[in-house]
Design goal:
With 266 residues, the chain is mainly alpha-helical. It contains twelve helices and no strands. The two termini are 27 Å apart.
Length: 266
């Protein structure tokens, strides 16, 4: 418990360092680039355009209120939310290895690294979401007050990614095969989550199997807010909230218990 209090106190004490590091991360990433942060936004937008062209005719009739924009709304919501999850997990996978020189300094706030990654990814998501919102406004499909429920859903997606990312990032220092393996797993995970296709189009056995995919209810809740202006299914999100807490606890505990060995391995 004292370790937990110390970690939280350290994060608060170095909040200025976290803020400066996030700003520096953006500066370094886009230094010398004419388009700058636009490149970060072009990737998910390009994905949406390609998938929309390829799947609209198949999926459009399966969605409620199937006008010309319905599938794009559904797809954008899923792709942008998935992008937040995947960016946090993939960057935290290597965050300790990439910052090995800093971790060896006893005065460096080591527990701040996952937080810096998460804040940077959330800022990228907010920028992409702003473009999405402009699109919804342009086609007169902005949801009402129910859109406020996107905040807890997105927060849960981010926290789940942080907990999983800390676990994998710590383990990756000792088992370097995780580095190339996790991106492959994430590619499969993307296609095993109803983002491009619609859940109701799947056969019964596949719908049953998706009950074990923790991202499915989160993505569905987020998509339904924009597609149907429907409240999240809280009965399906409650177990996910517990699972998110477990991943955060396991990740933090694993990191705190191995931080000394982690420094020696780098």
């Amino acid at each position: 418990m004292s370790s937990w209090r110390g970690m939280i106190a350290s994060l608060w004490r170095y909040r200025g360092f976290v803020r400066t590091s996030v700003a520096r991360d953006f500066q370094l990433r886009y230094r010398g680039s004419a388009l700058g942060i636009v490149w970060t936004l072009l990737q998910p937008i390009g994905t949406v355009v390609v998938l929309t062209i390829g799947f609209t005719r198949v999926m459009q009739p399966r969605l409620p209120g199937g006008d010309g924009f319905t599938y794009s709304i559904y797809l954008c919501a899923g792709v942008f939310a998935w992008g937040l999850f995947a960016e946090i997990v993939q960057r935290e996978l290597n965050v300790f290895i990439e910052n090995g020189n800093y971790l060896k300094k006893s005065s460096f706030p080591r527990s701040s690294l996952p937080l810096i990654v998460a804040i940077t990814a959330i800022i990228n998501f907010v920028l992409a979401f702003a473009i999405y919102f402009v699109l919804l406004f342009a086609i007169d499909r902005v949801p009402g007050w129910v859109a406020l429920w996107t905040l807890p859903v997105i927060l849960m997606i981010a926290l789940l990614a942080v907990g999983l990312g800390i676990l994998l990032g710590t383990a990756n220092v000792f088992f370097r095969d995780l580095g190339p393996a996790v991106p492959i797993v994430l590619q499969f995970w993307f296609w095993l989550t109803p983002i491009v296709y619609v859940f109701d189009t799947l056969p019964e056995f596949a719908r049953h199997a998706l009950k074990y995919n923790p991202l499915h209810p989160l993505m569905a809740a987020y998509q339904n807010i924009f597609l149907s202006q429907r409240l999240p299914d809280f009965s399906s999100l409650a177990p996910l909230a517990v699972l998110t807490g477990i991943f955060l606890l396991l990740g933090a505990r694993f990191f705190l218990s191995r931080v000394g060995e982690l420094v020696d391995e780098l």
